[in-house]
């Protein structure tokens, strides 16, 4: 039956199936990371009229919280999330899923059009194989967070427009100057900058590449290229002004995120830290294999992983070198300096990967490593963070896929077999790990990954209802005598302020100009300390919600102004 269907239809069906498969991954295993949590918290405050900000306690007057502008990220994600929360209501999970789904659909759609000019150079079923691989494989999409997918989708859309402009047939060039497409290209690049600071150089790569190409081969594209570059410069300048005037600073531009134990971030010592490059993420390996292959279970796990990394990386580099070399020689046989579409495609992707890596290397060399507890070894620098290489992962994955699917073949029979082996092994690992878990979890009620414990569903709904109703739209103080991640997530996403018991007790007597509502989360497994018990008794706290599944017990009290004699 399928043999009678045209390839165009089968490719479209495969594209739709790939999108659904990636959506299924997000639906089955949703995660709310700290990055997304913080930016969503700022979106809640934006809806409350406080701008893109985070609420902090004001010890001089608890009734007047301090709203600090969000400066760790550009405001794009917060703006989008605020709009979604208006539509989806207080269901943060639904809004988060919609953001992920929109990012995935945008990313796949951009790549559908990015591959379109290459169709004559690929086998007829190439799009089906390309997108089904990306739909099933966990690489290169592992370790994604909220802004990563959306930013990459915007940049890929701009890259697709750039490729379309550079490969337009003569009839299309005569009918249109390409100005609208060039301006849209820069607008999409700016969209990526609104979501992540790391896309600044990649965004300028788009109009600069168009200008370079136009200056050398297509004089008619010079005006559109200059207009696109000017538009992007104006937009980015406006964003920088926003960061300087509203957010206070632009992290990773005006200061560096260090968390150093010896000095504040603004005084980070500049230098040339060459030893940081020893932490370089194995980019070629992670373009096809995620960290789900647990080498720690092997007798010599560390050695086994190092061997796998070097073997796969060397093989991928060799395959790309062979394929791109043969592609370049094939282009030279035409006897012209004009780059063929495949060569141009490869140059754009290599430029993307190179710029991404160069930025991370430059930052890692220039600034001291951050001393943190959440990263392996306790020392973090840019080149060590896997997810920061996402544009490079996607580029290398696409390069190998296009070389394997090329027509006529651009790889020798042996090289093509080795390329298929790498892609097949990547696919088998994903089927055995993440795809298997997706199939197991897909038909369960979707929720945060930490809510999968049986019995938590109802408790989480009751917790969210209490936090949404508390304070009538104003930040509420949420005290605690222990750390409960799920309660903190719910409280921050409701726009409330988390306070530790030690801070509360250290600032006695508390100052407030009017009564302030406080919810206090007690650990039911451990009796409160005498000081905490006295604090709750003095303020006449009463229990309002017991959550044994979450291990939380919430009490309610009011902090009133002190009476002066």
UniProtKB/TrEMBL annotation:
Q: What is this protein called?
A: Glycosyltransferase RgtA/B/C/D-like domain-containing protein
* Segments crossing the lipid bilayer: 92-114, 121-137, 143-163, 175-192, 224-242, 303-322, 343-368, 388-406, 413-432
List the source organism.
Answer: Hymenobacter aquaticus
UniProt keywords, alphabetically: Membrane, Transmembrane, Transmembrane helix
Q: What is the lineage of its organism?
A: Bacteria, Pseudomonadati, Bacteroidota, Cytophagia, Cytophagales
Entry keyword Transmembrane helix: yes
User: Has the keyword Transmembrane helix been applied to this entry?
Assistant: yes
